[in-house]
Amino acid sequence: ETGVTQTPRHLVMGMTNKKSLKCEQHLGHNAMYWYKQSAKKPLELMFVYNFKEQTENNSVPSRFSPECPNSSHLFLHLHTLQPEDSALYLCASSHGLAGALADTQYFGPGTRLTVL
Amino acid sequence: AQSVTQLDSQVPVFEEAPVELRCNYSSSVSVYLFWYVQYPNQGLQLLLKYLSGSTLVKGINGFEAEFNKSQTSFHLRKPSVHISDTAEYFCAVLYMDTGRRALTFGSGTRLQVQP
User: Residue B31 in contact with residue B94, Cβ under 8 Å?
Assistant: First the structure.
């Protein structure tokens, strides 16, 4: 899928660093999502934004800070992460109409994050 | 708590053989069901989804799945697999009665198609 892009594709950071992950969708969607994919664990939803408003925070630690400046862009700001935060972070988007979480979510390729 | 169980972490199969990937979910009044595929170094791609209507759902790449409410299952099938089907497959459920607009994913099944 080229409709959802994520940068960078790979990121290595120390526990004291501050970095940001970027997601951009070119599909005209209004809902965007951050997921965490860890080895041997199910995919975990982190945040949902619908029309730029955060509608779900799945008890994510405050060291992860999302930002959605418009419907096409979604950021995940990272600070003072732990090694256990190393994972593949996936962004997704969907139409986001009312009650429409059941519409198709389009995923980006992910950012492989390693925290040293 | 709602959960999604994919009973097999890995399924090896020979090319052109049929395959079934199993998915069970915790019982709920109303659910939407999905299968996604993840090829190496890529994001997830929707294979098919069940929202309502016919319990047999056809998706892309020749896959189909059947919703069985009494058994709380949504198994994925393909009558003849190709090498290119080698990937990780995820079952996901949206529990409509929780008020949460969040998909619950299974832990995935790695399909390995051998020549």
Answer: yes
pLDDT digits (tens, 9 = 90+) for A30-77: 989 999 999 878 889 899 998 899 988 888 999 999 999 999 999 999
Q: What is the DSSP code (8-state) at residue A107?
A: E
Which of A1, A41, A105 is nearest residue B107 as measured by Cβ atoms? A41
Element housing A62 (H / E): none
B34 Cα to chain A: minimum distance (Å):
9
Cα B27 to its chain centre, rounded Å, is 17
CB pair distance less than 8 Å for A48 and B51: no
- For residue A105, the 8-state DSSP code is P
The phi, psi pair for B22, rounded to 5°, reads -95, 145
What is the C-alpha separation between A33 and A18, in angstroms, rounded?
21
Residue B8 DSSP class: -
Closest-approach residue (CA) in chain B for A40: B107
Q: Among partner residues A42, A104, A107, which is closest to B43 by beta-carbon distance? A: A107
* Rounded to 5°, angle at Cα B20 from B18 and B25: 170
> With 0-12 CB in 10 A as exposed, 13-18 as middle and 19+ as buried, what is A93?
buried
Position A20: which residue type? S
